[in-house]
Structure formats: C-alpha cells, structure tokens
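pipeline stage [seq->struct] | target=Phosphoribosylamine--glycine ligase | organism=Fuerstiella marisgermanici | residues=422
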Amino acid sequence: MKILVVGQGGREHALVWKLSQCDGVEKVYCAPGNAGTAADGENVNIAADAIGQLMSFAKHNDIGLTVVGPEVPLVAGIVDEFKSHGLNIFGPSKAAARLEGSKSFFKEIMKKAGVPTAAYKTFTRQEEADAYIDALEDGPLVVKADGLAAGKGVSVCSNSAAAKAAVKGMLRDDNFGVAGRKVVIEECLEGQEVSILAIVDGDTIIPLETSQDHKRALDGDLGPNTGGMGAYSPATSVTDEVMDDIIRRILVPTVHTMKVEGYPFSGVLYAGLMLTANGPKVLEYNVRFGDPEAQPVLMRLKSDLAQVLSLAASGRLSELDGLEWDDRAAVCVVMASEGYPESYAKGKVIEGISTADALNDTKVFHAGTKNKEMQVLSDGGRVLGVTALGASIPEAKEAAYRAVTKITWDGAWYRTDISDKA
C-alpha cells in the first residue's frame, strides 16, 4: 500500500517515520513535507490546503490511504472531498472538524453531552464582552479566538484588564483575522494539563498512551503561548482510575453526542484536559494528532500504525485487538528559531542532526526545515523535535537533552525543563 501524509511539521515527520516501518507499506509520500520527511519518505510539492491537487495526486499514484496531519485542511473539508471521489482517507468530516475549528461549537457539544468543561460565554461585540467581564469578580480569565489561530489564539489573563485587552485585540484590532471575530471567555481552570488522544471510527474509541505538552515559551511555564515547546509520555498524573473517568465522562459522551447530532466523528480525537480538584475538565478538543505530542507517543507505539488508521478510516476499528506499547518513557524537546513565537529568521544552516540521530533510542523529528544544496536549513519557528526513549522519564529527558547538545544553528534555543512536571 502507498500512503500520503498531508502536512509539513514535526507531527507529519513522526507519522511518515512510523508508517514507513509498517508491514505492507510500499511507500510513504508527504505533501509538502520537510527535510526529515524527505529522508524517511518522499516529498510531494503540494501545499497541505491544496485539496484538489492532493486528490489528483492520490488518484494518479494509487494511494491506498491518506493521513491528514494539520487542522486547516480538515476544517476545510478535505475528508469529504476525498471520500466523494472514492479515496480512502483518515480524519473527521468538515462538520465534525468544527470541534476544533469553532470554540463555540465545541462548547455547545460539551453542554449537550454533559461533559465537564470551564464555564463560558461567547461574544462578537467588544462592549458586551467588556460588560460581562466587569460583572465578574476581578481574577484570572481565559479569552479564546473562536476559529483556528495556529495554537496562538488563547490568552490566559491574570485579571479583568488583561482580559479586556485580549478581547480588544481580537474583536477590534483584528489580531487573528476571521478566527477572532467571535471570542469565547472562560473561567480559568487550575490543575495539571494533560493531552489524551484517541483513535475513533464513529463508534469505537481506542485511547492512545497519555502525554503532556508544554505550551509556554520559557522554563517554568513562563512567557507567551506557543504551538508547543516539548512533550513527554506517559503523563504520570493520569492514573488508571483517572483514565477510566476520562473515558467514561468525556470521550464516550462526546463521541455519542457527535453521532446523535449528525456529525459522527472519525479520526484522532485529542482532548486537552485540566485535572482539577473536581476531576478532569475539557479545555479544548483538537481533531488530529498533537504536535509535539505525536512525537513521544508514536515513539512508544509498537503496533502497526498503518493497520490501525486503515481500520479506523473504513469504520472497522472494533476489529483491532488493542494496541501494543513500549513500556519506556519518551521525551520530546523542541528546538526553535530565535524570536519564536513572534518573528524569526529562516535559512540558518543546521549542524549535528545526523550525530544526534545516531544516538541509541533517539530520533530527531523535523518540524520547520528544508534541504538546500546538501544542507539542512531552518524554515520555521519550531524547527526540530528531538525525541528519546528511556527506562524512566528522567532517563528519557537526559537522553533527549544529550541529543539536543549535538545540534547547533545560529539563534537556536529551547526550554531546559521539559518533563520536569512528571
């Protein structure tokens, strides 16, 4: 079978790397890909949101399965288009992808499903939002752009003044364009944040191993929000009892309600959760593999990923007899460009990737890179996801940072405390 992976980040490199190891997989393409996917598969020069061109490529190259990495083409309806032309594809429909594409839709589904989440209200006018904030006790609030904002449309505000400034930035200053024309204002939940990913085919739910992302740019969870500066698996705060509670009170009612409402969910259901004093509550849903969570989770997966995704795409996930996992822990450290998550330079020559890759139980996943004249250059804000396995989380952390020290480029930086929460 030939497989097409859509996207160009670290998550897509992890998918290409894992799928290329599966039995019966003849070739893995990545569109548009990066320097890492070019090494572990074959890149195709088609943008991730060029749905027509991707369909044409899949038809003419006998692609047996397309796996969509990023959220933008999913929200745009790539799955519906592929299926309408008889092409096999893994991911949610356009209607179901609204779980990520619209924060207000997500909240409505949580309410109908009875799933625990933060108290909220939505607004399209700044004056009404400000009046709501004034009516609340002055304290922390979360302001979210309703639409897709590349992981940066969430402002955790320490007080009412900061919340009003965040609302103004979205509704009046147009900081996030169309995505910020509607805002969701939520109570600020406290606790440990964890990521729970599950493979779903509309009926059957198979949770993956747990993980925890690090969203803030700087050590100690300080600085601005980013797309994720690292992750580790397993998340030690999720005990078997907590996981059972998450499945029973969150995943099952969400999938059931989506089906009842006429939006059956198939694909990766990614729940960003806060483990509060009153139990787990949903912060957000994503509808695809997380980045960087996919990197440590897929490092630990021993089952045939191509088989798993193929069964899910065809509605036969119930035929799968569970998943097999490496008992070891995995830690992923993101190396970023100077200036990220704000403006940053591209085109810096990266040295030492092959040296780091040669270390035992280590894989350097490319996120923002490209090849030019036999060199690997930086081509994004998050550039590499250096990932390693270890007998324990501290050992995996040590191995990951050992690999990080082998890699250099002008302006490279990274957090030094990934996985310390464990």
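stage status: PASS
auto-comment: The chain has a mean pLDDT of 95. The two ends are 39 Å apart (CA to CA).
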